[in-house]
Amino acid sequence: MQTGSDVMAQSTYPAMLSMKKVHRPVWTVATLLLIILATQWVTYQGSAYATGSSQAAFSPAAPQGQDDPDLAPESQWVIGPHDALGMIAAGATLLDARTLAARKIWPASLNALPVHWQDFSYKAFQDRGVPLPAQEGAGILHEMAVTSERPVIVLGDWAEGWGEDGRVVWTLRQWGYRQVFMVDGGHAALEKARALGKSSTLVDGMAHQTSHQLPAQKAAQPAQDVAEVSTSQVRELLDHEDIVFLDVREPREYAGATPYGESRGGHLPGAVNVWFKAFLSEEGTLRSASEVHNILVRAGALDASSAQESPMIVVYGSGGFRSAWVAGVLSHYGYDVRHYAGSMWQWSDRPWFWYPLVTASR
């Protein structure tokens, strides 16, 4: 879905050798070069994290309720602040995924546990957007006394943050923790609701129920999966015209700037760009299903005139935090979504001739 202004930035190729002037030493050097390139290919293919199954990556599903304000319970990734307060009163675990600076300015309440999304990811520079294996993640959560038997609510900074709460929610769901949710409006909205002293009718009077009766299980039974796709899978999916790649970085990043650590600039061939903040209203809350749909249509991710099912959308960013937030939002509204967690940190670290990027003026 490449626009006319896109130009391939790194598609230069060596000039053809004149066959009449090639001597045995040149053939030897050429042979060695081919061996080296083949070795790199095998190395990168073998080192790519195939954390999502190939079968899952190629199985589009029909969107559910994207224009229905009363979303099906299984599609919920985002809950209202009043619902969150009721769930916390009933025993849900509260995590604060905001930055240390944000927590110093406005400390968390309600015994929220501070977390950082990178605590759940690999430490290697190029792979720091990839989540740790589920078993290792379960060990970290166990030390924090976070259990899958109770709902988990994750707070973020929706005004100044980068979608850290969405990344934590997505990671925990990848590890099998099914009842994990973001709060619409983030920490500020929860504190405002708390100050008003209101609680959702959904959870009023339910604080004394046992864990298997907690309101999260009534309000949002297991949400749709947002499977991870690896770098090697993304490379394969680039050949499929029916797959939409959604770049949720800033327009300058999409065009080629590298302010946040990418080894190379640009975007995936054919990708469309919607900055992740576009899905927020002026009040700092999540836009409606119809608004999100219109945003995707205007960006070229969806065809408004098509009667066909919405396509599979692969979301990526720089390191998989803004993109995880958007992936959760789109899944919340019923779209068939995959998340490229390694994103540009991992893609741009690969050889350009097999992992191309496109630059464009915006």
From TrEMBL:
Stored InterPro entries: Rhodanese-like_dom, Rhodanese-like_dom_sf, Thiosulfate_sulfurtransferase
Sorted UniProt keywords: Repeat
SUPFAM superfamilies (alphabetical): Rhodanese/Cell cycle control phosphatase
Domain Rhodanese: 88-199, 239-351
Protein name, per record: Rhodanese domain-containing protein
